What we know:
Elements: H1 10-25, E1 33-35, E2 38-45, E3 53-58, H2 63-72, E4 75-77, E5 83-87, H3 88-91, H4 98-113, H5 122-142, H6 146-159, H7 170-183
This protein binds zinc ion.
Zinc ion binds next to helix 4 and helix 5.
Amino acid sequence: MKTKLINLVPGQIEKLLKKRKDVLKKSGERLGIEIGGGIVEHHYPCFMDDSFNVCIIDKNGSDMWKELFEIAGVAFIFGNTKYIMIDSAEVYKESFTLNHLYAVEAHEICHYLFEHHNIIDPVHDKLCEQEADLGAVSILKHMKRPEAVAVIEKRYQSLYENHKDFKLRPDLQKKLDIYIKEEL
Ligand SMILES: [Zn+2]
């Protein structure tokens, strides 16, 4: 059985997240494990779904990680694993809030759910991004995180011209519904 943060009372969630965020910021508590020239600064169970793992990566010093984040942006799901990799440079920005973290995690969970494992075609890629954003909005609404929903919706409306009419494919919607029903 998964332990869900959503089962905690709201005050507890904020406290826990603040503590984790503080821990993330303290360089003295960084993990410092090297993988492919990059450094895993922190590793923890995903805030939203602890069956996923989050790795905060310092990409400096590694062409491989630099390239991966250049393609993926702030974060990506590692192949078909439940590992969410996030660029530490983004996490440490003052403007990066816990709501951004929620938004990133929900988006990456959707890539996993929708089996977006091998994105190489740019058209496909944009479609996958839109699907993950839309799925993340559903998850975050269900979790009653309106501020995190707003983070995604802001970018969603500016990125996709068809944002008003776009719907998830029925098979993806079904996967999402099952996930929300069973896991959240
Ligand atoms: Zn994405």
